## 1
Amino acid sequence: MTVQTTSLKGPDLLGEIERLKRERNAVILAHYYQKPEIQDLADFVGDSLDLSRKAAATDADVIAFCGVRFMAETAKILSPEKTVILPDMDAGCSLEDSCPPDQFAAFRAAHPDHIALTYINCSAAVKALSDVIVTSSSAKIILDQIPKDQKIIFGPDRHLGGYLARHTGRDMLLWPGICIVHQAFSETELLKLKAEHPDAPVAAHPECPPHIIDHADHVGSTRSILDFALSSPAQTILVATEPHIIHQMEKAAPGKLFIGVPGGDGNCNCNMCPYMALNTLEKLYVALRDLKPRIELSPEVMERARVPLERMLEMAGRTVGQGDVGMPIIEDKDDGVPPGEIDPRISGD
Ligand code: 13P
Ligand code: SF4
């Protein structure tokens, strides 16, 4: 895709982004994996759950989403009346790519007695085929609300699904997707780092494969990794997630040492998300100026995808164990529950 750009630079570029933001009544939301200069001018930086909550609650007219496409789509689904722009529409995700909606629909159809608990890193069309969406920070809280005898399909991240299964003893059918970034972390490089820094705890994202998770002292979403890194008494932390999050750690705790775990043989950039890296300040400026690239989704997909997303927001806010998720609802999405309300069979209300 040809992306328009600008010759504006430095303070002129930042000033123009601020001016356009005011003129458009826009809010800039950014994920922790964005470049530092984007994180620094964003109104809010967060993990996928926090960003979804912000997108659902904002009173801005325009959401400029500095993250990847599935995140911007989530913002659009939760705030359909708003204009949602993404600086580079090619900012996808390997997990989304691994799960084509037609194949996911066929998988669901082959397991009619299962509900689909689906990681937010997927297309809007796959969300529309799901019962409850989860993020890495809400997955366990939500899983704990589902009755033990309910059969579950978990997709598209097999490592997050596998981690949850090991952690909770739940047997779930896993879709075989992976995150190319977290898959690339090298156990050998991690062990070398641990030998060099024997007192440093390891914080890892659950998208990592088990051979990395097995060495972790803390496993959680980007925000929980950030919280752990800041609250740990350790002066050195080994970080097994996309390294741009270290920017927030260094800002908040400049006296500590945060070391990103390398990918491959330690000499590649494969621990950086190539999709997140597509967004730049120049592209953000152009997006705010032209109000495009803009997220456009069919009303039908948005209406169906909003139901499992709003379930996630509702269930993620609950005390663990209060819910009563029972019947699979895949066969009949037209369940009489207006979009935006929780199906009582899922919520236990
Ligand atoms: P969280 O920020 O929700 O932990 O997600 C990580 C990620 O890989 C986003 O694509
Ligand atoms: Fe997708 Fe992995 Fe990039 Fe996150 S880090 S957007 S899961 S490819």
## 2
Amino acid sequence: MEKIRIIEASKHIGEMVRIGGWISNKRSSGKIAFLQLRDGSAYFQGVVVKSEVEESIFDLAKSLTQESSVWVTGIIQEDTRSKFGYEIHVKEIEVIGESKDYPITPKEHGTEFLMDHRHLWLRSSKQHAIMQIRNEVIRATYEFFNNEGFLKVDPPILTGNAAEDTTELFHTQYFEYDAFLSQSGQLYMEAAAMALGKVFSFGPTFRAEKSKTRRHLIEFWMIEPEMAFMDQNESLEIQEKYVAYLVQNVLDNCDMALDILERDKELLKKYTTLPYPRISYDEAVDLLQNNDFDIEWGEDFGSPQETFIANQYDQPVFILNYPKAIKPFYMKPHPDRDDVVLCADMIAPEGYGEIIGGSQREDDYEALQTQLEKHGLDIKDYDWYLDLRRYGSVPHSGFGLGLERTITWLSGTEHIREAIPFPRLLNRIYP
Ligand code: ATP
Ligand code: MG
Ligand code: MG
Ligand code: MG
């Protein structure tokens, strides 16, 4: 008899099969028991009819507890009434591992309790759906960049110097040296682009974010493409094409997950329309000031400001050309004015905030050196990085997309902690 996974049920209608799974729920009467089964691939229903099985099997079915693991043997049948479309008419049940007093029921417990039990919370259908979307975003990312001719490159995680804000760095010891966990692979990706042309990385990123928000993890994953011979406008075109591709693939391949999450698919569909609107930082400040926001030119936007701007559009929106003073040293100034840089943030709709930050990089040796000095950075630490401008410097651009931000948005989840299997948050490193 064939051992199958629930997801394959449609290919085995009318056949006797064996499935290993867990009992996620159960209902029974005197004559029939309905078992909600999950096996990690999907969910569906097992039906045990008293008159069709041995008495011991029916009694066993009635006694099964939540999250007990079982082998069930039965015949797959189409069932248009069930939301899964199929069910198994159970003939045999074998308990593999009993589960006594399963501690959590997601609908009934508060967040702290669920977070303490994250290892079990992951078994819920909502978390399952989010993890499927996470998988699809990763899969489609590799596919997209592969189709576009990018090479995947892995920058180091232990680094000797920091790309950006030093207050968020995780310090560690590297034998007799000081080292930091990577906050961004960008500088290395620039080197990779000079060697390989178009590259992207996908890796973990560590930031000691000191404030609690719904949008920040301490450990998150970032996709960082870097492109030689591309200016900021060409980079924006790649960015919107990439994000629209992610949305389309989630729509195409995560239908069931989106249903479980009750995500509005018509809304998601709008996010596949290109191009995405673009607004300059200057225009954004004017817009905010005209709507009673207390903001001066030169300040960075926080979540309320980003949400207000995003709400003017029904697609993701780019905010272009931020003030040089609030951006990192490596961004190239605008050719017509020195107070802003050639950069953009992509802001997700519906209040999900910044999902991409990107820029054209300073490619001039002298200008870069001056910027490093202005930022109080030690030129010695960046000697290798300056080499990229000494030996055949070219215009180049790149960006970083936050994986969990994107997943939070696509799945319509409240808080970023659900977009990663084991979130690292301020004051939480367990489980
Ligand atoms: P924010 O303004 O939201 O703090 P940032 O400007 O500091 O983000 P970047 O350095 O531009 O972030 O990083 C690129 C992308 O990484 C961001 O657009 C966002 O999607 C994601 N990101 C940044 N910080 C975090 C974090 N702490 N947790 C999860 N994702 C993050
Ligand atoms: Mg930040
Ligand atoms: Mg930002
Ligand atoms: Mg940013």
